[in-house]
Design a protein that fits this description.
- The protein has 459 residues and is mainly alpha-helical.
- It is 58% helix and 1% strand.
- It has a two-stranded antiparallel sheet with strand order 1-2.
- The longest helix is centred in the last third of the chain and has 46 residues, at 378-423.
């Protein structure tokens, strides 16, 4: 079990997730539009309120879906705690206590399993999973909302892998934003860890990076996840955002290949110091399609905007990955300001959106509980598969040896028959002895039996 002692306001947890979902829903209708197209369709101010996408108003996308499955995996993680032996990995922070490393690996494994459940929802067959009490059983989540190709491909490979070789880290070299956009729950999870703020931030950074690395193998794809998780942890613990960023940066620079991510967050900080958040400044940071750009754009809005609403709206109205940048900005400002900041975001729209059904269990008003049937961990499944393959190979080897033995017996019988045939005199039509006939009958029977056995074995 992980020791807990710090108790930040619970409304910051709710605000972090809700504000992220609001940003996601605001950005969903314009995710693939240019800035000019946004202004054409929504007026001079661009997106100002929820609109329709995916057949409904205020629809969340894969960003919030995967964020929720991240949270559920972490809640499930205690079930798997201690089940996974510590695994060496050069990308992990040096000097980490073995017990802490083993616990984190167990949590990463549980979240990977949760992501495989999310993958099942992308088949859009909710009736097959209606018996689950967790998120897999929420019909509203069985909806394909422009999921990232990298996430789908990486998880398909994970689901199909006969063995995982002790690692859950992707090897695809992707630095897309699909890793960072879903890991805010890692920050919330670590916000209540015992110890000081710096220790909690380091734990969050390591966990956030590892969760992003399940699908994104480039440092620019997983290190932004570490920065986001560390900042969410610190913001939820009342650390001012400028100090939270400085602490996250100190951890970042200890990681290999941190240059792109460091350059991106430094640029966001410099632009934020120039004045209030605005579109012209933010787009200097990129389009948000890759991890470090999405983090930097959300950080810029978080540092420079006057309110949660203005930050999210700036993060939405640009020619890029609008839902991801707005979701990350919402995560950060929700963790910092709590539910009190939600009054000016139009959050009442969420009451009638599908998100309300996601945060409650089938619309009953009761909190979602994680009571899905216990299932083996991903690595345990791999070990079981390896054992089954070994057993099957041994059986095949035994059958091959038996088939070879039968072939040798058949050849011996054929050779014996040839020898006896040469030695026996030709049968006379009128004077064939009874003994000679019996010999021929026995030989014919032996040959027939041998041939029958050989046919059965070869088949």
């Amino acid at each position: 079990m992980i020791p807990l002692c710090h108790a930040p306001r619970l409304d910051r947890y709710r605000a972090c997730l809700l504000a992220g979902a609001i940003g996601d829903a605001l950005g969903a209708p314009v995710e693939f539009l240019t800035r000019r197209e946004i202004l054409r369709d929504f007026g001079p101010g661009g997106v100002r309120d929820h609109s329709a996408s995916y057949g409904r108003v205020a629809a969340i996308t894969d960003d919030t879906q995967m964020t929720l499955f991240t949270a559920e995996g972490l809640l499930r993680a205690e079930r798997f705690a201690g089940a996974v032996a510590s695994r060496a990995d050069g990308a992990r922070m040096t000097g980490e206590p073995p017990a802490a490393l083993a616990a984190r690996e167990a949590h990463v494994e549980a979240v990977a399993h949760s992501y495989l459940q999310w993958l099942l929802t992308q088949r859009e067959r909710p009736a097959e999973h209606g018996g689950y009490d967790g998120l897999l059983g929420v019909a509203a989540l069985h909806s394909r909302r422009a999921p990232g190709h990298t996430c789908l491909a990486a998880l398909e490979r994970l689901a199909a892998a006969p063995a995982l070789a002790g690692s859950l880290r992707a090897t695809n070299g992707s630095k897309g934003c699909g890793g960072v956009m879903r890991v805010a729950p890692a920050g919330l999870f670590c916000a209540r860890l015992s110890g000081n703020d710096a220790d909690a931030a380091r734990a969050a950074f390591a966990l956030g990076s590892d969760l992003a690395a399940i699908t994104h193998g480039h440092p620019g794809g997983y290190l932004p996840g570490g920065v986001l998780a560390a900042m969410v942890t610190l913001l939820a613990r009342d650390v001012p955002k400028t100090r939270a960023l400085a602490c996250a940066r100190q951890i970042l620079v200890t990681c290999p290949e941190h240059g792109d991510t460091l350059q991106a967050i430094n640029a966001a900080e410099r632009l934020a110091a120039l004045g209030s958040a605005n579109h012209d400044a933010m787009v200097q940071l990129g389009g948000g399609w890759i991890g470090d750009e999405a983090l930097a754009m959300a950080l810029y809005c978080t540092l420079a905007a006057e309110s949660l609403e203005s930050a999210v709206l700036v993060a939405v109205n640009h020619s890029g990955d609008s839902d991801s940048t707005a979701a990350i900005a919402g995560n950060l400002l929700g963790a910092e300001r709590g539910m009190a900041a939600m009054d000016d975001t139009g959050s009442k729209a969420i009451d009638t959106a599908e998100l309300a059904r996601v945060f409650t269990l089938r619309g009953t008003g009761e909190p979602v509980t994680v009571t899905a049937p216990a299932i083996p961990s991903v690595l345990e499944q791999a070990r079981q598969a390896d054992e089954l393959v070994a057993v099957l190979r041994e059986r095949v080897r035994g059958l091959e040896e038996q088939r070879e033995l039968y072939r040798q017996q058949l050849q011996a019988a054929q050779s014996a028959m040839e020898v006896l045939t040469l030695r026996l005199p030709p049968p006379a039509a009128a004077s064939q002895s009874a003994g000679s006939g019996l010999i021929w009958a026995v030989l014919g029977l032996v040959f027939a039996v041998a041939m029958g056995v050989a046919v059965v074995v070869v088949r």
